[in-house]
Amino acid sequence: MARAQARLTVLSGPSGVGKGTVVAEVRRRHPAVWVSVSVTTRKPRPGEVDGEHYWFVDDEHFDWLIAQDGLLEWAEFAGNRYGTPAGPVREQLAAGSPALLEIELQGARQVRARAPEAQLVFLAPPSWSELVSRLAGRGTEHPEVQERRLALAQAELDAAGEFDVVVVNDDVARAADELVGLLTAPPPAGS
Ligand code: ADP
Ligand code: 5GP
């Protein structure tokens, strides 16, 4: 069935759980999988490439995208804005191919409201202490930013029940393969 191939899948979960790492592994192991590149007002981290990890834009450009209705969803997260360009996702699905978004919780809820047929996948840490050490271990944020992200992470963990599927990020390669399996899985009967 063509519809099963054209599913929109959203990967979400608390900051620091490993969403970026798992999606990078999906790209490495399964280069054919199409992953949306978000726009953000956040500054690039060392090694991040414009157009590959994100489109890095200023506030003015982000405002313009919202005004054009150019974003499928967007959210403010820990002091920066992030959004999914709508056009490329639409084209991907229209071509009958699966599309993967890696976004935070508020965005996942907006996708659910706009595209109820989308599959929402929650990436969960093996434990809370593992989440804390991953966020600290990444070392990309100042301690006060880490604190802010951990406070958000607690609320984000509570939202796991809103999702269709929970994937535990115990092992990156295993979680990536499970996610790819979900991308091409037929939707449940009746959905
Ligand atoms: P997110 O995108 O969800 O904010 P990241 O992908 O940046 O999270 O991962 C946060 C940290 O956790 C990174 O240092 C990453 O290397 C580490 N990490 C990710 N997945 C695993 C895993 N399965 N086991 C151990 N460490 C992991
Ligand atoms: P980071 O700054 O660590 O790259 O991302 C912060 C958070 O923003 C992560 O939880 C990530 O999933 C989320 N994010 C990335 N792109 C988007 C997007 O397009 N929309 C939304 N809503 N969240 C995003």
If you had to describe this structure to a student in words, what would you say it looks like?
By secondary structure, the chain is an alpha/beta fold. It has a single domain, classed as 3-Layer(aba) Sandwich (Rossmann fold). It has eight helices and eight strands, in the order αβαββαββαβαβααβα. The strands form two sheets. Strands 6-1-7-8 form a four-stranded parallel beta sheet, with helices on both faces. Helix 2 crosses helix 8. The mean pLDDT is about 90. Bound molecules: adenosine-5'-diphosphate and guanosine-5'-monophosphate. Guanosine-5'-monophosphate (5GP) binds near residues 74, 82 and 103.
Radius of gyration: 16 Å
Number-wise, the strands total: 8
Structural shape: globular
Q: What is the fold-level CATH name, i.e. the topology?
A: Rossmann fold
User: What is the number of helical segments per DSSP (H or I, 4+ residues)?
Assistant: 8
Strand content: 15-25%
Short summary of the structure?
The chain is an alpha/beta fold and 191 residues long.
